[in-house]
Design goal:
Blueprint lengths: L2 H8 L1 E4 H26 L3 E2 L2 E2 L3 H23 L5 E4 H24 L1 H15 L5 H22 L8 H5 L4
Antiparallel strand pairs: 1-4, 2-3
């Protein structure tokens, strides 16, 4: 990397204030959903005790209250301290995006095929390994996982079309 790229990587991608406001807002929304659904279930005391939404309602109320406090404190912050630099965010995204794709592939291909692709991709892309190492590791890990979960523990994991074609589903 040259000097300009180094400087760009060190530039702030998000301030602590912005991140705290965003997280507090998301948690406030979550608390509001808990309260809304608790009211739907009933938040009063019935003949046999509290209705299903009684305790979740108060938990949702505490979640909303704490997130409002956090939100107010974050809004009042005067510091624009960096939460994450562009370089750090790029590193996080280089793992987050492929992992999100992997989760989507599990539904389409099953966990074993998706995991072979995922391990192979990371070994090739981030690890810069050659294919003579990638193939045995990606296949070997998944054979071991298959034996452990499917054979020894009898825990069925999501299968895809390949496992179905092989009669393993």
């Amino acid at each position: 990397m040259d000097h300009q790229e180094d400087q760009a990587a060190d530039q702030p991608a998000a301030s602590s204030k912005a991140v705290e406001i965003a997280v507090a807002a998301i948690i406030l929304l979550f608390g509001a959903v808990v309260i809304f659904d608790s009211v739907r279930l009933g938040i009063t005391w019935g003949d046999e005790g509290p209705k299903a939404g009684y305790f979740p309602f108060y938990v949702g109320l505490l979640i909303c209250l704490s997130s409002v406090v956090t939100l107010v404190r974050a809004v009042r912050l005067t510091s624009e301290e960096s939460f994450v630099s562009r370089g750090q965010l790029k590193m996080v995204m280089s793992v987050l995006v492929p992992t999100t794709v992997y989760v989507g592939f599990i539904a389409l291909l099953g966990i074993y095929v998706a995991s072979v692709i995922y391990i192979a991709f990371f070994m090739w892309w981030l690890g810069k390994y050659d294919w003579l190492k990638i193939v045995p590791v990606a296949l070997g890990v998944n054979v071991a996982l298959f034996l452990m979960f499917e054979i020894w523990f009898k825990v069925p994991l999501p299968k895809g079309p390949l496992e179905t074609a092989l009669g393993l589903a």
